[in-house]
Amino acid sequence: MTETSANFKAKSTIKSADLEHRQKINFNIARYNAIVPQGKHQFTDLTLARERAKNTKWRALETLDQQLEQFEKTFTKRGGKVIWAETGQQALDEILNICKEKNCHTIVKSKSMVTEEIHLNDFLTKNNIESVETDLGEYIQQLDGEAPYHIVTPAMHKSKEDVAKLFADKLGTPSNLTPEELTLVARQKLREKYVQAQVGITGANFIISDIGGIAITENEGNARLSSAWPKTHIVIAGIEKVLPSINDLALFWPLLSTYGTGQKITVYNTIISGPKQPNETDGPEDMYVILIDNNRTNILANPKQRESLYCIRCGACLNACPVYKNIGGHTYAATYSGPIGSIITPHLSGLQEYKHLSYASSLCGNCTEVCAVKINLHELLLENRNEAVEAGYISFGEKLAWKMWKRASLKRSMMNMGNGKLKNKIVNKIFKGWHKHRAELNFSDKTFNEMWNERYKK
Ligand code: SF4
Q: Which residues contact ligand 1 via a Cβ below 6 A?
């Protein structure tokens, strides 16, 4: 067992017994569950909409090279600059180079999971650049020194009282502020940063190939400010974020908002196709888009797993997953948690190290059922397990146990050997860890053959 896997098991054991954590998560997910059906009403045929979205992403990924080149060609024509980064480190180095060139000391940043993936904030801090999260949930997490807990709702595990206490500890505010008052405090702090920042960094929900633009979806307007106020705007986006056409947003925007937060449409939806043009009054003077691979092409090269790149990061599969709801987002110790995280993390960060995440599933299929773009999530989890076994990443004990099980299952005479008590003794000894949190395996006193004969052959 790797250290990462052992830590995962230890943390899961603690978290799943934490009733306060469970109560907060259940409260927040119940609110999500109550509102999502309202968003779904806007689709006359929801299944068709999801299938169309899946087909569009299929087309985008099957022609990814052409889509990205088309994006670069059009975006560059309007004065934007495209940087291709094969690894996280390359992306970080490029960002640092731009910051040095612009003499940047402060960055305002909107929510972006890919920047979490490459640990951008830590890197900037080490290089004496202040990076301020401007999304309220991310701002809360940054104040607390924690990574996002959820891909859509970074502070989902905190109650309003937790946030009030955090602000009191870190910012010296009274400890009984209401959510509205807390928001005003954050807003006041952040406005100062927008003015100071030389560079703004955002992610992109979609890269739009035909018009050479990026689309950002948000509820607070902070991404719009982060991209428009500083003189330089850097976008960092995974290569899989591509949509072939601006027309696809008519489907993807409502789909993302419905499955992400239950809204019919998110409050701010922005398309940016380059820096400020000579006839325009606002916007950044320079705009860069960093297209990052960081092992995504490993997934692209795998025909079975490629489907996981269709993900639009709506977070619905996390909210539906019984494992996520019990162990929480931080336990995964990975940027992407929940079912989709368990699928892609082993390919992004190493199958041997992270294969255990693919076993952290009941395979109930609820994730597949709720996925906005109909990714066969539970089948991909099984595929990951298969790939881990094929690659030889299983212990000798496990291999032996399955061999014995196969042998016995294929031979009735072996199944009939020994009585129930003996089988219980042997099996419970082999699966030592099994009954730590469960009842012991308990074989029937009689074999199947004996029971059959008693019933039908009297
Ligand atoms: S896998 Fe599907 S449900 Fe999960 S975050 Fe991605 S799009 Fe949403």
A: 259, 311-317, 340, 370-373, 375, 377
**Containing H/E element for 77?**
helix 64-77
Report the half-sphere exposure of 92 (CA within 13 A, side-chain side). Answer: 18
Cα 372 to Cα 382: distance, rounded to the nearest angstrom: 20
State CA 408 to chain mean position distance: 41
| Sign, CA torsion 81/87/89/90 | negative
Cα 271 to Cα 112, 212, 214, 227, 230: the distances in Å are 16, 10, 6, 11, 17
Supply the DSSP string of 253-305, one letter for each residue: HHHHHHHHHS-SS-SEEEEE-SS--TT-SSS-SEEEEEEE-TTHHHHHT-TTT
Ligand 1 centroid–CA 372 distance in Å is 6
Q: Which residues pair with 286 in a beta bridge?
A: 232
**Per-residue pLDDT at 343:** 98
pLDDT digits (tens, 9 = 90+) for 102-126: 999 999 999 999 999 999 999 999 9
CA distance 235 to 115: 10
Say if CB 185 and CB 173 are below 8 A apart.
yes
- Atom number in ligand 1 closest to CA 343: 1
Nearest CA to ligand 1 atom 7: 311
What are the residue ranges in the chain where pLDDT is below 70? 458
8 A C-beta contact, residue 346 and residue 279: no
**pLDDT tens string 19-55:** 999 999 999 999 999 999 999 999 999 999 999 999 9
Q: What does the pLDDT look like over 172-197, one tens digit per residue?
A: 999 999 999 999 999 999 999 999 99
Pocket probe for ligand 1: among 32, 46, 311, the residue whose CB has the most ligand atoms within 8 Å is 311
The pair of three-digit structure tokens given for residue 283, joined into one six-digit string: 């916007």
| Cβ–Cβ under 8 Å, residues 254 and 264 | yes
Residue 178 CB-half CA count within 13 A = 2
Q: Given phi > 0 = left and psi -120 to 50 = alpha, else beta, which region is 330?
A: alpha
To test the pocket of ligand 1, the residue of 314, 318, 321, 367 to mutate (highest count of ligand atoms within 8 Å of its CB) is 314
| 120 CA distance to ligand 1 middle (Å) | 24
Residue 295: phi and psi, rounded to 5, are 80, 5
Nearest CA to ligand 1 atom 4: 317
Cα separation, 377 vs 394, in Å, equals 22
